[in-house]
Design goal:
The chain is mainly alpha-helical. Helices cover 67% and strands 0% of the residues. Helix 3 packs antiparallel against helix 4 and helix 3 crosses helix 6. It is globular and about 55 Å long.
């Protein structure tokens, strides 16, 4: 089996993410999809940690497409990411930051209970 097919086996949302329609002015979404595509095809599928990260980034970007509130928060938080110059793998560092933003989002949204206002 080719490595691309092996990678796509771990990414059930690949087509949905890559074919997501967004505004031409939305540069952040464009970059996120590019980062996603680059990361999953550069990942080492023999490394368990890389496989785990590929599955997680696939899940996170699917959530990005589905959940407007998460999309809004990720767009705000992603521009504040700082990566040191001494970092050897910048792409991996960005993906790790995206995953940590998602973890923070999950923690904060499950801790806050939103009460619907009835009219």
């Amino acid at each position: 089996m080719s490595s691309n097919q092996e990678v796509l086996k771990f990414c059930p949302h690949f087509n949905r993410i890559v074919n997501f329609k967004y505004s031409s002015e939305d540069l952040i979404t464009d970059k996120l999809i590019t980062i996603y595509r680059d990361f999953i095809f550069k990942a080492n599928m023999t490394n368990v940690e890389d496989v785990k990260m590929v599955k997680e980034i696939d899940h996170v970007l699917n959530k990005y497409i589905e959940d407007y509130l998460f999309r809004k928060e990720l767009k705000q938080e992603i521009v504040q990411i700082k990566i040191k110059r001494s970092c050897k793998d910048i792409l991996r560092a960005i993906v790790e930051n995206i995953l940590s933003i998602f973890d923070n989002y999950l923690y904060n949204t499950t801790r806050k209970i939103t009460i619907a206002r009835w009219i």
